[in-house]
Amino acid sequence: MGWLGTILVGFIVGVLAKFLHPGNDKLGFIMTTILGIAGAALAGVVGEALGWYQVGEGAGWIASTIFAIIILAVYTRIVKK
Question: What DSSP string describes 1-52?
């Protein structure tokens, strides 16, 4: 998929995570993209290792969004302190 595709997927996943996570998250464009890329990477590693899905399946999007929400929740708790 390449770097551009990874960044685009990361941005979409980051926006979904920010939309689904309650609260006021003051993340900019770059941090939202990094959040999504981190969620997608973590979901890819965990999901493939546990055999939940293969590369390119739709479940990867769902898992990426869930992991991005988890990362966002942890990030907001750390920043609040």
Answer: -HHHHHHHHHHHHHHHHHHHS-S-----HHHHHHHHHHHHHHHHHHHHHTTS
